[in-house]
């Protein structure tokens, strides 16, 4: 499934030589390494880069960008490779910048509750480094993604309903722009009105406007008390209505996750859990002991009012860990429902008042399609995923799955939602941008891309199609 | 103090005629109306626009922008005129778009906790419209600013420590771009990764990238319980250290405001309060009755530990209103300390750990300068203001005040902070942008401005200097 042209093309010899001289073994054109960097967790065909380079500093990245710009060679930043939308695929060839060796936590400033990290630091690594500080980094997209990648895709995940997304939790960035200039955005102040918000412009730009080489991110105090619970429901609708009531009451729940019955059954098989195979909500509450009790009491009442079948607590840390590990493995558990399959994952997010309607319509679509497609989501934000299981070698089936995905997205847009709550646009969602934002907004995005990257060298072919594309 | 050239220049006759025909009395070149729109709350010389137009719809704004673009005539959006940085001054001439007649609350969606408003709606008007809904709009910059203006300057104010700034509370915007195209950004979903964050790019762009004609903003549940308190301290440092301890403990305080002794004395005189004339913190706690009590108990202990002299509660709504009305009148109370003066207002914001150092150094600078300059601030965010009282007709004094302001900003930048936490750049902070963000970041901002407004027609001369400036 390799896209032939870029994979087989050689880099300009002079560039190849200078990078080899400068970076030694940290620069490679080995087929194995390139192949490893030519795919992610998406169903898109592999597209390996022409070379892979492991930078150690912002200045090195700037030098590589300038040298590549001389030859018109694209650059593709690479974090942990967990993207679901083809972000890291080198569809125009070019050099992959793998940030796994830029993985230092540079400064923990507990007194300001912020931390400076290199982009290759993963969320688990960061939280390990914070051990004993009384602080944690809450953003949790499931996968152990890198912070650079999470910022680039505006990631969020299970805790976003309480702690926000990467948009809300990055204070500042260092980025290398397409001309090789190094830009520092934001400051360590908690708020600022000093000029255009370059930080937020780079967050979610998926490496197409600048390459993130350093991040300052917010931390949060570890909650004094944490409590988790699961509750089964007679049907998805009752579960969703419990979520809506919880959010509308303003309960500051830390996590509130929906799994449909098929997902729960996949989880039981994959993670050896014994959950009741019914639509289910996973909850987590953070706060003072009294606060957690207060929140949990309200939610338990709401669940009961909406037909919740039971409310099982997991208060011990190891029970909680097991529960959330099972939740995080949903993607792989789902793939396991159909061995050899890949997932085409929808990521719609709608206003909470439309969530029940959106989920119900999506379920109807899935039923009509004949696909196996578990539903799971961060429903407190109105965000849910449909993992459509496809045979990656069957183009006709992929086409049918994409048609299903299209219907799911169209419904979400009609309900005032977005085509992607947290996965990003990459290659898979470009054709929805105009439907979601309108042609004028897409044109404004393209003007920004052309202004900041006039030769289309930074992760070309992602987010906003170039005019010639 | 009027800048002569633009004020006296006539608009191209054909443009004048077409706008008069189309808009009738909603378009005026009357000297009085122009003069009213030629100044704000800043100390900058008046600069009236060549005409003032009161649009009623987004489409009207688009038409005016297209017609003005034909003639190269600038456009300056105008909300409530409460800017402190000269944002509304027509320093290159042009037409002022006064949004006071676009002041409808278009849709209150209590079930999603969001609201759609026209840009001329003020924060007090919005909260009045929300009466009985159980929801409120928390952003409170003191002045009864318009939501369009607040979005344009990325405003915040007293509640930001708990509820965030306009950056965090705007879900989507409609804006007219420099070519007259209408762009809709964001969606009603709570989060999205769908493309570049045009919403956040427009927020804080001060009318220089697009003219905001509609906003969808987040609402929050009215807290079940609210409690306010004031506490006097032996010195500013003790008060600031109490704030730092509160934030570092993660207490979700809703407001935490510092007034120095001079400010308290100004407030007593202006608002007829009888506060102890010592450095003082104003607190507000939001939550469940138990939650508020818990928060207040922690903060009271912290205040006591840092030498707090007393802790006076204002639990009755009318007491609270009186207290916060006095807080909001600090700017005018301060001007009253020197009749006939104007304020040059610093707006620095630093990491909380550096706040004590920043305030202490600022106080030393003020003492050395001989100026009357009360200090007041949203210290929970690390943000505080110094209101330097100047004789607006004494250029030498203004120069000395600006030198003082410069020293205050330089210190804040050296401590990792920003030159403006919430007032915006306007005309007054442009020369600090490079020092804060670096030349490369300012260049990126200018590239964006040039891409989106190639003829420099949208609020020219604000935020980022044009190359020829």
Automatic annotation (TrEMBL), chains A, B:
Q: Which PANTHER family match?
A: D-LACTATE DEHYDROGENASE (PTHR11748), D-LACTATE DEHYDROGENASE, MITOCHONDRIAL-RELATED (PTHR11748:SF111)
**Keywords assigned by UniProt, alphabetized:** FAD, Flavoprotein, Oxidoreductase, Transit peptide
List the SUPFAM superfamilies: FAD-binding/transporter-associated domain-like, FAD-linked oxidases, C-terminal domain
Instruction: Kindly give the Pfam families that the UniProt entry links to this protein.
Output: FAD-oxidase_C, FAD_binding_4
Protein's name in the database:
D-lactate dehydrogenase (cytochrome)
Q: Which residues form the FAD-binding PCMH-type domain?
A: 45-222
The Gene Ontology biological process terms listed for this entry are: lactate catabolic process
Q: Does the keyword Oxidoreductase apply?
A: yes
Q: Which domain of life is it from?
A: Bacteria
**Enzyme Commission numbers on file:** 1.1.2.4
Q: What class of enzyme is it?
A: oxidoreductase
The coenzyme or cofactor needed here is:
FAD
One example of the protein's molecular function in GO is: D-lactate dehydrogenase (cytochrome) activity
Q: Which InterPro entries match?
A: FAD-bd_oxidored_4_C (IPR004113), FAD-bd_PCMH (IPR016166), FAD-bd_PCMH-like_sf (IPR036318), FAD-bd_PCMH_sub2 (IPR016169), FAD-linked_Oxase-like_C (IPR016164), Oxid_FAD_bind_N (IPR006094), Vanillyl_alc_oxidase_C-sub2 (IPR016171)
């Amino acid at each position: 499934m390799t896209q032939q042209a870029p994979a087989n093309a050689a880099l300009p010899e002079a560039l190849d030589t200078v990078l080899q001289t400068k970076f030694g073994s940290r620069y490679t054109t080995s087929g194995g390494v390139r192949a490893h960097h030519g795919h992610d967790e998406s169903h898109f065909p592999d597209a390996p880069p022409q070379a892979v380079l492991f930078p150690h500093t912002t200045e090195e990245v700037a030098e590589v960008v300038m040298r590549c710009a001389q030859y018109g060679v694209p650059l593709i930043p690479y974090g942990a490779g967990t993207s679901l939308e083809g972000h890291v695929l080198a569809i125009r060839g070019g050099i992959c910048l793998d940030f796994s060796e830029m993985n230092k936590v540079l400064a923990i400033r507990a007194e300001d509750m912020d931390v400076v990290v290199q982009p290759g630091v993963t969320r688990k690594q960061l939280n390990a480094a914070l051990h004993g500080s009384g602080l944690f980094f809450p953003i949790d997209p499931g996968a152990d993604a890198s912070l650079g990648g999470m910022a680039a895709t505006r990631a969020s995940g299970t805790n976003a309903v309480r702690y926000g997304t990467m948009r809300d939790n990055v204070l500042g960035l260092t980025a290398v722009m397409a001309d090789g200039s190094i830009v520092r955005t934001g400051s360590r102040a908690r708020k600022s009105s000093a000029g255009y918000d370059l930080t937020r412009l780079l967050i979610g730009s998926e490496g197409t406007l600048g390459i993130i080489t350093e991040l300052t991110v917010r931390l949060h105090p570890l909650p004094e008390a944490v409590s988790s619970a699961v509750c089964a429901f007679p049907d998805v609708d009752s579960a969703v209505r419990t979520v809506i009531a919880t959010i509308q009451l303003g309960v500051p729940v830390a996590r509130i996750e929906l799994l449909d019955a098929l997902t729960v059954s996949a989880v039981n098989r994959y993670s050896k859990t014994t959950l009741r195979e019914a639509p289910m909500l996973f909850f987590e509450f953070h706060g003072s002991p009294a606060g957690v009790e207060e929140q949990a009491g309200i939610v338990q009442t709401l669940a009961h009012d909406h037909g919740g079948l039971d409310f099982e607590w997991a208060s011990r840390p190891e029970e909680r860990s097991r529960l959330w590990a099972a939740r995080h493995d949903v993607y792989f558990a789902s793939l396991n429902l159909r061995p050899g399959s890949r997932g085409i994952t929808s990521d719609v997010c709608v206003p909470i008042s439309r969530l029940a309607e959106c989920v119900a319509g999506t379920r109807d679509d899935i039923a009509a399609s004949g696909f196996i497609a578990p539903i799971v989501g961060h429903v407190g934000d109105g965000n849910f995923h449909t993992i459509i299981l496809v045979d990656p070698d069957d183009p006709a089936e992929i086409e049918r799955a994409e048609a299903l995905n299209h219907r799911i997205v169209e419904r979400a847009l009609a309900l005032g939602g977005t085509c992607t709550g947290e996965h990003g646009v990459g290659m898979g969602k470009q054709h929805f941008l105009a439907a979601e934002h309108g042609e004028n907004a897409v044109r404004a995005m393209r003007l920004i891309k052309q202004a900041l990257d006039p030769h289309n060298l930074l992760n070309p072919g992602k987010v906003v199609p170039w005019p010639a594309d």
